[in-house]
Specification:
The structure is a single chain. This protein has one domain: NE0471 N-terminal domain-like (2-Layer Sandwich). A hairpin with a 7-residue loop joins strand 5 and strand 6. By secondary structure, it is an alpha+beta fold. It has a three-stranded antiparallel sheet with strand order 1-2-3. A three-stranded antiparallel sheet has the order 4-5-6.
Amino acid sequence: MSAELSPYTEFMPATPPPAPTPKSVKVQLTAGTGVDIDWADGHASHYSFQFLRDACPCALCDEERHNEGREPGEAPHAKPGELPMFRAGTKPVKAEPVGRYALRFTWSDGHEHGIYSWDFLRDICPCPECRARRAMRGDSVGSLQQ
């Protein structure tokens, strides 16, 4: 009996390789500047807190982004006819590790459901090098999560 792949297998997205382990993680909570990660492979990532809030990986935020056609880290679009208003930046009031694989934030808007794994953070790295690599591969950040 030969093993046959399901006809759906060819449509399943490739899983990106696991992220290298961070060498250091600095959450600049008091300064309010964001999160800096130095990865074991020598890469360095900086994430502003607003970028991270807009990239929240929880199911509710992910669905909202999907419905609006936004990528993780992309700010919500203004609704048609809505005047542009000042949007105060959301900041974390608390940050904590989740095991050895992630961070969790409690945000000033009360949200606290997202678990930001090292793999997720590396996948959404906003640096020009990582953005260019995703663009060359034709990956959107959203397709990496699914």
